[in-house]
Amino acid sequence: MKKKAALFAAAAVTVALALSGCSDDGGGTSILPGAASAAPTGDPILIGMDLDKTGPGSSYNPLAGAAVVAGVAEVNANGGILGRPVKLIEESTESDPAKGPAVYQSLIEQGAVGILGLSTASVVAQVKPIIEQAKVVTIAPVAVLPTLTDQPDADYVYTLVNPVTDYGSVFCGAFEKAGIKKLAYLQDDSPAIKSLAGPLKDAFGKCVTIVADEVAPVASTDLVAQATRIKDSDPDAIFVQSVGGQFEALAHSALYQAMPDVPRFSQGSFGSQSDSWALATPGALDGLVFMQQLDLTNPRTEDLQAKLTTALGSDFTMSYFAAQGYDGLMVLLDAIKTAGGTDDPAAIKAAMDATTDYQPHVGQEGFRISYTPTKHVGADSLCGLALFDFGSDNTPAGKWSTFQPAC
Predict the structure, then answer these.
(1) Nearest Cα to 68, choosing from 375, 372, 404, 308?
(2) Which domains does the chain have, with CATH numbers?
(3) 182-203: per-residue pLDDT in tens?
(4) Once rounded to an integer, what is the mean pLDDT over residues 290-302?
(5) Are 179 and 198 in contact (CB under 8 A)?
(6) How far is CA 284 from CA 48, 156, 207, 248, in A?
(7) pTM of the full predicted structure?
(8) Which residues, at least 6 apart from 92, have a Cβ–Cβ distance to it below 8 Å?
(9) DSSP strands (E only) in 309-385
(10) How many whole angstroms separate alpha carbon 121 and alpha carbon 49?
């Protein structure tokens, strides 16, 4: 386990210079002064971050982590929080729930007054008692596990976006609209997907019959056998649920070869992993419909994309993971600002519980995030989600014309 008191120091300096003078005019709860400010001084506000660079979460964690780094640099370039600089403490659980307790205990012992749990929801679920005992507000901005904020030990645990049960509602609407009644299911065996598959299949059971249910190792190098069995089940459509990356590229390549005319759907991680699309057979992604928590027609998303491209370089590709990481940071820092500092964990929690009508950079334009003492799932509606499809060049073509969730 490698400890870092400061995250990507050289990169942070570059980002700070690029973002100097920027303000949060793209919506959301503004924590920035919107004008040139004195450099922050005093003791830093320490924010812990569980960022996986190895393990299943490494296919998307760096996307969120880079946006968090940019967000911290932006805040510091605009005076910090309450005149104090913000500093990240980074560690990694490597997507392994068994490593969660040691990592989170280390972040807390190093002085973190808030934590961004960017790793899988199964990791955060494992450390809930530690979070509760330490009274450290923890946001899992990329987590979609619906039970993560359930009691016990959930007073200080928050999620940002729509849970996977909302995915089920949206996909069921899509299946009904497309006339799909028989569904084949293929998933990887990573801890993250294992925790999400049950609730999603339960939701699907209300609208379709699952005629094939295949589980394959996340490190699979051949999915032809699974594709053959799925073909034998004669489905109307196929649903792939995975952490994305090579597994999903391999899955769609095999399914495309076996059943090129059968519609395919994806939970969504793969749709934001542009580096993975080229791993699929040319044309294999054509028509693939995927869930996305990012709508590039949302003006706030457009603003954040421009901001992060300036900060991170022209090679940066906007993803919902980046937007979730950025929004999770901003919501947490706003609560600290509202609480008046870092000395009173209960005050930070109370400020989180009073968050209302935050306008995030994910979802459709009408999407909002709020919390109460009994509501720690941020999403206020289904329009934090949208459906997109791929074109014949194995890149997303745009919003799926058949169905979209309404705000």
Answers:
(1) 308
(2) 9-162+297-376 (3.40.50.2300), 164-292+386-399 (3.40.50.2300)
(3) 999 999 999 889 988 999 999 9
(4) 91
(5) no
(6) 40, 43, 27, 11
(7) 0.80
(8) 1, 2, 50, 51, 52, 53, 54, 103, 119
(9) none
(10) 14
